[in-house]
Design a protein that fits this description.
The complex is a heterodimer of chains A (766) and B (112). Chain A has 766 residues and is mainly α. Chain A contains 35 helices and eleven strands. In chain A, the strands form four sheets. In chain A, strands 6-5-7-11-10 form a five-stranded mixed beta sheet, with helices on both faces. A two-stranded antiparallel ribbon of chain A has the order 1-2. In chain A, a hairpin with a 5-residue loop joins strand 3 (540-543) and strand 4 (549-552). Chain B has helices spanning 2-18, 21-47, 52-76, 89-111. Chain B is flat. Classes of the chains: A mainly alpha (766), B mainly alpha (112).
Chain lengths: 766, 112
């Protein structure tokens, strides 16, 4: 084939492959829909879904000014000013566009499918980014890797309607634009970077990563002596326009001028201005004069900077670092100072194994790719190196930030992998450089010319075809293997004549092994996706002994009951985890929810759960609580229930009410956290314990065993006086209790309960 | 001190001699923006930043306009032509306009 035809083939193949990759990326995220149904998952997505509904129904201005009185009762929440509106606006726009063209798509389906759709775009931007770093075959590999990498799938399966779903696309695309801007020095690309940065700011709090990484890149280039006018143009445009744009989001507001997270960007901006000015002056004077001028200029700037910084920090204009920020640097910080942050499982440090679990073979190729970046070390490679260093660190600190690591791992793994393929599949300069010499020495000049001509035509063709082969297998696990292998063998036999050292068997061995790795990767990704990341967590599935699947739908059962059987303004208290779900599904007023902005309020709920009935009844009455909702997994062995979370409630409550709640009182003298008859009196008297095990013993005729904690319960269960059981779901997973009104006869509720049970009240003898 | 004086004199002389007219035009625009920024800053130190968004919009508008003019200056400077093989002076001006449109859209929105 001539060069022209191969490039035409490549031109057709590349988009086809990219579309296929996008399709695979989308379809591998649909496990949850096929297994369960098109439903919003987990906790935070329910809030996003609820706000999106509001946005679609009431329009943008109403959404912007929305004061939500149904959450954080009695405080309420200003929704428009405390959300990252990017994802809601995106789905509302998609919804409205579709409706404009008369596609009556339900907003729920837009929300459910948003993250998979954007994963296709993410794969495409990974292609673009890697293409800037190496070539398009590496780009295709990167797209295929990122399309299916579990580290990214974990937050973007269908129904997982969360900020990260679109934010990772924006992250990768913004980085691509930034690299493009640095390379071309075009203000236009700087502007595009700023615009996508704005979109990113509107979508996810993780935008701070961009805010720091891009200046860091610029600063590193400056330190490496690589200042160029291109860098000045791209960075200045990005910073000046991007910062102003980011302040348009109410939740971000004036932060870019105040908090320390944003100061690095400002500092680098100032530095670049001075540097550019110095460069301008340097062009006009002799070196010696420049030296004098520089010395004078630097001392003047230093004096101004020191005075300015001292003034600012003394007058308190620069805000102190926030807690979440500290917890990034010191992993122990959160645990000691902010239990509410530490209690969230996604804020825990990452376990070693999860790196392999989420990235499989990519984690091995990753360092090799970074090494190859060091070998090239152009401006854009410096960026990838910085990105990988920082993302690795942050991924180690917080499980959640695995997400930001995954793109760079995919990109550099693709670079490493495609370099391997380049080396073993075709002509590459350093292979030829070492081996061509003995050949040319024996060949006549004619043969030499033909060896020169042939490999170039082959060389242009192969990266695309091999890239295609690999991209496809990585996703499809179809029987493409034979084709690729035979192709590889055919190529290596053809090549063997020209490269005696790399004869076909050694080439085939490497290529076959690499292909096998790809298969394992695709298999692993599919396995992890289907097994671990596709559970909606509001509908549970378990296998019965005969192998049939049992769907446990208790959450929706309970929320549906609440929606249908309570007053419209009923206030339901629960631990904050379920706040968003209750607001979204049951449409009730909640006291606390997953937006954990008010620690005191959460601690109050924790106190109500952790104290005895007398104390907590007062708290419940004061907050107008009508119902209390808890999760209890003791019957079916659901380990994420409230008794297991109880220690966090106690800790958080103790932080605010140290006199009324004490963690040590909940542990037995031997330091155990027990729920059976060895449980401490404080534990047994706590409202949470009483609610959880209320009538639990009766269910088993006095022989109850808690299946989560493997504890044999006492045959006599706890008594409840201030609450009455309102509803318990099929598998006892969710229990709802109604708060009793004050007794009509003015007795205490304890006496009233005793009286109802036919007990005689002990009276004092006169 | 004497050195600085002679160096700056040399600088000014060389600047006047070597800079093309179009760049001098841009430079005068930049000096004007710089003065506007300084006036705003002085006003703010005297009168306070309230309302903060209006101050920020105004001040960032001057800073960003300055930057964009500097970009235009760099990209149209014949000395730098080798560094920007893809950017013609016309293209640089188009970029300048596009950036200004987006910038002042945000400024107008932020003024409140």
């Amino acid at each position: 084939m001539s060069v022209e035809t191969t490039s035409t083939v490549a031109r057709v193949l590349k988009p086809t492959i990219l579309i296929l990759i996008a399709l695979v990326a989308i379809s591998s995220r649909l496990f949850s829909i096929i297994r369960f149904e098109s439903v919003i998952h987990e906790f935070d997505p329910w809030f996003n879904y609820r706000t999106t509904q509001h946005l679609v129904k009431n329009g943008f201005y109403d959404f912007w000014n929305w004061f939500d009185e149904k959450s954080w009762y009695p405080l309420g929440r200003v929704v428009g000013g405390t959300v990252y509106p990017g994802i809601m606006v995106t789905s509302a726009v998609i919804h409205n566009v579709l409706h404009f063209f008369n596609f009556p798509v339900d907003i729920r389906n837009v929300c459910v499918f948003l993250a998979p759709m954007f994963s296709g775009l993410t794969a495409f931007s990974a292609y673009l980014l890697t293409k800037e770093l190496k070539d398009s075959s590496a780009g295709l590999l990167a797209a295929a890797f990122l399309g299916v990498a579990p580290g990214y799938i974990s937050r973007s399966v269908a129904g997982s309607y969360d900020n990260e779903g679109i934010a990772i696309f924006l992250l990768v695309f913004t980085f691509y634009l930034w690299i493009k801007a640095v390379k071309t020095g075009s203000a236009y690309f700087g502007l595009l970077t700023a615009l996508f940065y704005f979109y990113m700011v509107s979508a996810w709090g993780g935008y701070v990563f961009i805010t720091n990484l891009v200046p860091l890149h610029a600063f590193t280039l400056l330190l490496m002596g690589r200042y160029s006018n291109r860098l000045y143009v791209s960075y200045s445009t990005f910073y000046a326009v991007g910062t102003l744009l980011s302040m348009q989001i109410p939740f971000v507001g004036f932060q870019p001028t105040r908090t320390s997270e944003h100061m690095a960007a400002l500092g680098v901006f100032g530095l670049l201005q001075l540097y550019a000015f110095a460069e301008l002056v340097r062009g006009h004077v002799t070196p010696k004069q420049f030296k004098t001028l520089l010395r004078a200029g630097v001392s003047a700037v230093a004096v101004i900077a020191v005075v300015g910084l001292t003034l600012l920090s003394f007058s308190g204009v620069i805000a102190p670092f926030t807690g979440r920020f500290y917890s990034l640097y010191d992993t122990g910080y959160a645990k000691i100072h902010i239990p509410i942050i530490a209690s969230v499982s996604e804020h825990q440090p990452t376990a070693w194994t999860s790196f392999f679990f989420d990235l499989q073979m990519l984690i091995f190729l990753f360092p090799a790719g970074v090494y190859l970046c060091f070998k090239e070390l152009k401006d854009e490679h410096v960026f990838i190196i910085l990105y990988s260093v920082f993302a690795s660190y942050f991924a180690g600190v917080m499980v959640r930030l695995m997400l930001t690591l995954t793109p760079v791992v995919c990109v550099s793994a693709a670079i490493a992998y495609s370099t391997l393929l380049d080396t073993y599949l075709e002509k590459s300069d350093h292979v030829l450089g070492t081996n061509l010499k003995p050949l040319t020495a024996t060949n006549d000049s004619n043969g030499d010319a033909s060896t020169d001509a042939k490999p170039t035509s082959n060389g242009t063709k192969k990266p695309h075809s091999s890239g295609k082969g690999n991209a496809k297998e990585a996703k499809a696990t179809a029987a493409k293997a034979d084709a690729v292998e035979s192709k590889a063998q055919a190529k290596s036999t053809a090549a063997a004549k020209r490269y005696p050292v790399f004869n076909w068997d050694s080439r085939a061995m490497v290529i076959l092994q690499l292909t096998w790795f790809l298969f394992m990767f695709a298999w692993h990704c599919t396995y992890v996706t289907s097994g671990s990341y596709s559970s909606p967590s509001i509908v549970l599935a378990s296998r019965q002994q005969d192998g049939s699947q049992m769907i446990i739908d208790d959450f929706r059962e309970a929320y549906y009951w609440l929606r249908k059987n309570t007053k419209e303004d009923a206030k339901v208290m629960s631990w904050w985890d379920y706040g968003y779900q209750m607001a979204g599904m049951a449409n009730v007023t909640t006291l606390v929810d997953n937006n954990t902005w008010n620690n005191t309020h959460i601690a109050t709920v924790g106190k109500a759960m952790a104290t005895s009935e007398e104390v907590s009844y007062e708290v419940l009455r004061r907050h107008d609580v009508d119902y209390v909702l808890i999760l209890f997994g003791g019957v079916i062995g659901y380990s994420g229930d409230d008794i297991n979370k109880f220690l966090w409630m106690i800790r958080i409550a103790e932080g605010v009410y140290p006199n009324e709640v004490k963690e040590t009182n909940f542990f037995t003298p031997r330091g155990e956290y027990k729920v059976d008859q060895d449980a401490t009196p404080t534990m047994k008297n706590s409202l949470m314990y009483k609610m959880s095990y209320y009538r639990f013993a009766e269910l088993y005729g006095g022989n109850a065993v808690d299946h989560v904690r493997q504890a044999r319960m006492p045959s006599e269960g706890p008594k409840l006086s201030v609450l009455e059981e309102a509803y318990t779901t099929e598998n006892w997973l969710v229990r709802i209790f109604k708060v009793k009104d004050l007794d009509v006869l003015g007795r205490s509720l304890f006496d009233a309960t005793d009286f109802d049970k036919g007990k005689i009240r002990k009276t004092k003898k006169f | 001190m004497e050195d600085i004086k002679s160096a700056s004199n040399h600088l000014v002389a060389s600047y006047i001699k070597e800079t093309p007219k179009s760049l001098k035009l841009i430079d005068s625009y930049m000096v004007y923006i710089l003065l506007t920024g300084i006036i705003q800053f002085v006003y703010v130190t005297i009168a306070g930043t309230f309302p903060n968004n209006a101050f920020l919009a105004g001040f960032i508008s001057t800073v960003a306009s300055f930057i964009l003019a500097a970009n235009l200056r760099i990209q149209t400077n014949p000395k730098n032509a080798s560094q920007f093989p893809t950017t013609s002076p016309e293209r640089a001006f188009a970029d300048f306009l596009a950036c200004n449109v987006v910038l002042h859209f945000a400024v107008a929105n932020f003024l409140g």
